[in-house]
């Protein structure tokens, strides 16, 4: 009898531990190439850019709920202007982009679908549009949002959150620009003088 109980307990632990799954969430600078790189370079006062959130689900069980914070470790470098969840009507029953800011970039984004969500494999989850605020560097990452992450009805066994960086370069000072312009003009003058001789 004792052997049967121990066997049943071990079998139950194996079933429950194998049903939890690993989940990888990472950034890319491309909506079509998840391996395009994780460093977004902007210029202070210049146009914004985008980071794309990719999800890799390594089990056949779907991800029914995905609540994320997209973090930024240095306030005041870049701020999120939009968080666009990919295929919200087709993949998710309901979704909210979260609260946008600079640290975190996105606070408590939510998407859920009890009958769908993310299937097995690699898929684009969303696009985070950001504008530069001031020169500096910030590391961008992830944290589980308030509603958690549900895979097959339970939290994933492991969550692998990737990171990226946003680098905002300073605007060149007017003196630097004038210096570069004068060097260019001298170069053009020398070329014109050589052609005349």
Protein traits:
197 residues; alpha+beta; 7-stranded mixed sheet; 5-stranded mixed sheet; 12 strands; elongated; disordered N terminus
Question: How much beta, percentage-wise?
Answer: over 45%
Secondary structure: number of strands? 12
Helix run count: 3
Distance between the termini: 107 Å
Could you describe the 3D structure shown?
The protein has 197 residues and is an alpha+beta fold. Helices cover 23% and strands 45% of the residues. It has helices at 2-19, 88-91, 174-196, and strands spanning 22-28, 39-43, 49-57, 63-72, 78-85, 94-96, 99-100, 106-112, 121-132, 136-151, 158-161, 164-169. The strands form two sheets. Strands 2, 4, 6, 7, 8, 10 and 12 form a seven-stranded mixed beta sheet that branches. The N and C termini lie far apart (107 Å).
In short:
This protein is α+β, with helices and mostly antiparallel strands.
List the helices and strands and how they pair.
Elements: H1 2-19, E1 22-28, E2 39-43, E3 49-57, E4 63-72, E5 78-85, H2 88-91, E6 94-96, E7 99-100, E8 106-112, E9 121-132, E10 136-151, E11 158-161, E12 164-169, H3 174-196
Parallel strand pairs: 1-11, 2-12
Antiparallel strand pairs: 1-3, 3-9, 4-8, 4-10, 5-9, 6-8, 7-8, 10-12
């Amino acid at each position: 009898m004792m052997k049967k109980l121990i066997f049943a307990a071990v079998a139950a632990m194996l079933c429950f531990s194998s049903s939890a799954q690993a989940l990888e969430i990472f950034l890319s600078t491309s909506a079509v190439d998840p391996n395009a790189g994780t460093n977004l370079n902007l210029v202070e006062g210049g146009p914004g850019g985008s980071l794309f959130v990719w999800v890799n689900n390594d089990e056949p069980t779907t991800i029914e709920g995905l609540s994320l914070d997209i973090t930024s470790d240095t306030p005041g470098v870049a701020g999120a202007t939009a968080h666009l969840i990919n295929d919200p009507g087709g993949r998710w029953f309901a979704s909210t982009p979260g609260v946008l800011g600079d640290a975190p970039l996105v606070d408590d984004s939510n998407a859920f679908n009890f009958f769908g969500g993310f299937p097995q494999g690699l898929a684009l989850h969303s696009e985070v549009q950001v504008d530069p605020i001031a020169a500096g560097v910030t590391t961008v990452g992830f944290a589980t949002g308030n509603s958690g992450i549900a895979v097959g009805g339970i939290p994933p066994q492991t969550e692998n959150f990737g990171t990226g960086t946003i680098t905002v370069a300073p605007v060149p000072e007017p003196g630097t620009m004038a210096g570069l312009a004068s060097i260019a003009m001298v170069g053009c003058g020398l070329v014109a003088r050589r052609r005349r001789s």
